[in-house]
Design brief:
Immunoglobulin-like, mainly beta, Proline-rich protein 3, 9 strands, elongated, 4-stranded antiparallel sheet, 1 helix
Length: 167
């Protein structure tokens, strides 16, 4: 027997009904039958972005730039599925090791928005002799933040980019 569109639709309807019935929580007695308890929306974790900014000139080895800044640009999606205008925030200035850190906390995006894509870019070098940005590790085009680890003690998603280079 060849399945007809009616047979397929009836099977899909039956399967959907079974899934809905299986999802009902019977643990609280007959009062809860047919009622689903709304789940509390988890607040998104703050996002941390870290990396290094270095100076590479000629054939010499790369040296850290103290006081350089990275920029992180994000696009979010609102509750209706529309993309927001891109928004940016800057990292703290790099330390003596060229290390930078930037944070984006949930109040900077409202609870009804979800981040779609964030990229990190070179923003500024304080060194006159090493001020030209390079696209090594996408320092000019923007390194997409795509893998992270969760820091339980800081309750944060931490992304790593770079190292970025000026020349």
């Amino acid at each position: 027997m060849v399945p007809t569109p009616f047979f397929f639709a009836a099977t899909l309807l039956l399967f959907s009904s079974l899934v809905i019935v299986a999802a009902i929580d019977y643990s609280q007695g007959s009062e809860s039958v047919g009622k689903s308890m709304p789940k509390a929306k988890e607040k998104p974790l703050p996002i941390g972005v870290e990396g290094h900014i270095l100076c590479k000139s000629g054939t010499s080895s790369a040296v850290p730039i103290q006081g350089a800044v990275a920029r992180i640009t994000c696009v979010a999606v609102d509750e209706f599925g529309y993309e927001t205008a891109p928004f940016s925030f800057s990292s703290d200035a790099t330390d003596e090791n060229g290390y930078f850190f930037a944070t984006l906390t949930p109040p900077e995006i409202n609870d009804k928005m979800q981040l779609r894509e964030c990229k990190a870019f070179l923003e500024n070098s304080p060194l006159e002799a090493c001020k030209v940005p390079t696209d090594v590790n996408k320092g000019i085009r923007g390194a997409i933040l795509n893998s992270h680890r969760v820091l339980d003690q800081r309750k944060m998603r931490l992304y790593w980019v770079g190292p970025f280079f000026y020349t």
